[in-house]
Amino acid sequence: xxxxxxxxxxxxxxxxxxTFRAAPLLTLVELLAAVAIAVSVPLQTYAVANLIDAISHxxxxxxxxxALVAGLAAMFGGLIASGAVQASMEDRxxxxxxxxxxxxxxxxxxxxxxxxxxxxxxxxxxxxxxxELKYGTTSLGRAAAVFAGAGAVxxxxxxxxxxxxxLPILAVVRLWTAGLAGAATARAVAATMPAHRLLDRLSRxxxxxRHGIELRTFGMSTMLSARxxxxxxxxxxxxxxVARRSAVVEAAGRVVFxxxxxxxxxxxxxxxxxxxxxxxxxxxxxxLVPQLDQATSGIADGLRQLxxxxxxxxxxxxxxxxxxxxxxRLGRSAPPNRLRDGIEISGLSFAYPGTxxxxxxxxxxxxxxxxxxxxxxDNGAGKSTxxxxxxxxxxxxxxxxxxxxxxxxxxxxxxWRRRLSAGFQDFVDYEFTAGEAIGLGDxxxxxxxxxxxxxxxxxxxxTVVSRLPDGLDSQLGTRFSxxxxxxxxxxxxxxxxxxxxxxxxxxxxxxxxTAAIDPQSEHELFDRIAAASSxxxxxxxxxxxxxxxxFSTVRMADLxxxxxxGAVAETGTHRQLTDAGGYYAQLFALQAKAYRAD
Length: 598
Ligand SMILES: Nc1ncnc2c1ncn2[C@@H]1O[C@H](COP(=O)(O)OP(=O)(O)OP(=O)(O)O)[C@@H](O)[C@H]1O
Prior knowledge:
By secondary structure, the chain is α/β, with parallel strands linked by helices. It is 65% helix and 10% strand.
């Protein structure tokens, strides 16, 4: 219990820290305004009761009127100040949270948090809740305010008769029932997160315009909508059932309070009849108890909201811890300035997090400095997995990768990534200007037009850019009224140009970056990439890795690695492999025959 309270307090401190960092003055104004509004209502009630007593005893009314005016001023002042600052404060907090989430998630070197279901669920929960966290300070202010208001009501009730203390105890019963309901809701939300995550993914899938063609062609809408209805049921029914039970529990708490209210009024009327209380006291109790009820509702809502907000902050704390632990595991060594010998892979096996199946099995491989190496093999043979390990997205399950003798695990992965460049098969269509979408490949030189043009030339993307209405300044993407729609192959050229922005990478990873480009162009492109790479390789010893399914286009590679079922089946030059008459030779002959038949 104590640990739980300390944990909540820690989360509250983090929330306040976040919001004060985002908007210190606005937060202060919002918190003070909330308290002023909450205290103003009981203050006005107290002033009215005093005024009634003063008038009935023909006593001076100046003090009561002054208190009434002060109460009104506090209320309107608070409302005006809160209205003026609330929206900007929430927007700034949202901006601060977005920044923190981006820094944390992109700072995590690996990708396990996207791949392991329980981590992915937690990430989805954080992304979803972070939108609501911007209201965190407002709920905190509200909670502080209702506590202050309830405190003021309590003091005034006790001033009428000490027994009226009992009413707040009834209020605590209501708070307890509300707390139970809040906790049950939070548990139901967490338990239904997998269904929610799938539903979210499906609804994004059907909204995405580029998926429209497949959805219509295969007539998937009926199946998808049935699946979505099913997921809604899986997600919503447990949540609704908790909501129904919570409503019953909360209603019971409220009934207990209403009975107490009736008894309290009867009790004060008796006190007045016995001459032990004034007419003003009746007015005070009649007006204050509903305020206590409202304050209790306010506290209950506030606690519910706060439970939710603090659960989100707890998730944020988890993410901070996860990112920090991932950071601790980072190597500290600097990558070499140039590769002298190359990359040695020894006894490397790898299973994706949360699975037992080995995607790579006991791979031993030497990637010589300065070489152009091709990875070929069937679907699922392990080519992309090795690319991902070389980029430091995963750690080997067994064995190691040595970069000029230094284990890759000991090298600072962020600095390593700054020394590599990549073009992936599932590249991103950045709907920026063409120049930006390419320049992103090296953010430090994004506005360097010469560098962007050089990258365009290396990717043979000049024809794509020259057809754009404003060249590199053209907005890409059909989501913009002025945006230009590109074909799959054209987007891929832009992505390829992006991978050539880094001037002298130690490792250039091209994982089927040309799958959407016609075979003839791919062949010419790979020849040019290999020629250009060998020029830079003389300076840096950089290695270029090409993954492709088209054997004819990789034949110029210095080394061809053939993958089969997660293992390296063969290695050699094209000549050596065809002479050996093994698996590569068979596949090459098969593809060559198919092309000749065309
Ligand atoms: N994120 C993942 N989680 C679990 N298993 C994965 C994941 N990605 C790939 N795999 C598995 O790892 C194995 C190797 O996949 P990989 O993507 O490396 O093959 P590939 O040779 O690049 O195939 P392709 O030519 O189809 O791109 C496959 O059996 C695949 O099912």
